[in-house]
Amino acid sequence: MSDQEQSRPEQEQGQPEIAEPERRKAFKKVFKKLGAAVVVTMLGRAMISAKPAPAALALRPPGALPEKEFDAACIRCGLCVEDCPFDILHLASWTDPAPLGTPYFTARNEPCRMCYDIPCVKACPTGALNPLLVDIKKADMGVAVLVDHETCLNYKGLTCSICVRVCPIRGEAISLKPMSNELGVLQIPTVDSSKCTGCGTCEKHCVLEEAAIRVLPRNLGLGISGTHAVGRR
Q1: What is the dihedral of CA 176, 182, 183, 186, to 10 degrees?
Q2: Which of the following CATH numbers is that of domain 54-138: 2.60.120, 3.10.450, 3.30.70, 3.30.420?
Q3: One fold for both 54-138 and 142-222?
């Protein structure tokens, strides 16, 4: 045995040396997998952030924090959805009108049933649904707005008022107020925005093909006072 062979470490003796091209191939394979993982991660994040806010028809569960805070705190666990006894809540998919994986409901399909024990809030592990909400009448899921006076039957002089009769807090959140016009004295559904929880029961039960009363996120349903007398900032 030559002196050179004797100087090699014992662990290297008897092991075939990996050819340089094979080593290169191994590195390429590893880097390809890492690259694919990075691309998939970036694509996933881009798709999640493609919908930075829910559409107007997608309402949050009771106790939801303001949207930016809610989106940051919600871990998309789905526990609130599982604990909803009426299966009202859904986790948003790619095609739904809310950011992916976040809970929402659509009032026209199924309104919030205003559970007194608010199980969805109790199920939330992160506080995205505020645990301080203990009175369902203090919930703020949105606000009901009479969006179409032309089709509302009460504006036509008819007696419908279904939106008033089905309201869980009738007489407080929505009531009939007299208004006179060429048809006579009309009884118009009028929402008290300080009492409306945005549960969506009125929208669900509107008898029209397209509801004349809609629940909207509060920042869309109500105006914002400006700094000038005319209302502009």
Answers
A1: 10
A2: 3.30.70
A3: yes
Q: Which fold has domain 142-222?
A: Alpha-Beta Plaits (3.30.70)
Contacts of 172 (CB under 8 A, 6+ apart): 192, 195
Q: What are the Cα distances from residue 124, in Å, to 21, 61, 77, 167?
A: 54, 11, 9, 27
Parse the chain into domains and list their residue ranges.
54-138, 142-222
What single DSSP character describes residue 66?
P
Q: Token pair of 23, please?
A: 């080593």
Q: Please tell me what DSSP assigns to residue 27.
A: H
2-59 pLDDT, tens digit per residue, is 555 555 555 455 555 545 566 665 555 555 555 544 444 455 554 445 445 566 778 9
138 is written with which tokens? 């203090």
223: confidence class by pLDDT, cuts 50, 70, 90: confident
Cα 187 to the center of its chain, rounded Å? 34
Count CA atoms within 13 Å of residue 42 on its CB side: 6
Q: What is the pTM of this model?
A: 0.72
**Range 89-113 burial, b when 16+ CB lie within 10 A, else e:** bbbbeeebebbbebbbbbbeebbbe
Handedness of CA 189, 194, 198, 201 (dihedral sign): negative
Closest CA to 98 of 145, 139, 141, 48: 48
163 burial class (0-12, 13-18, 19+ CB within 10 angstroms)? buried
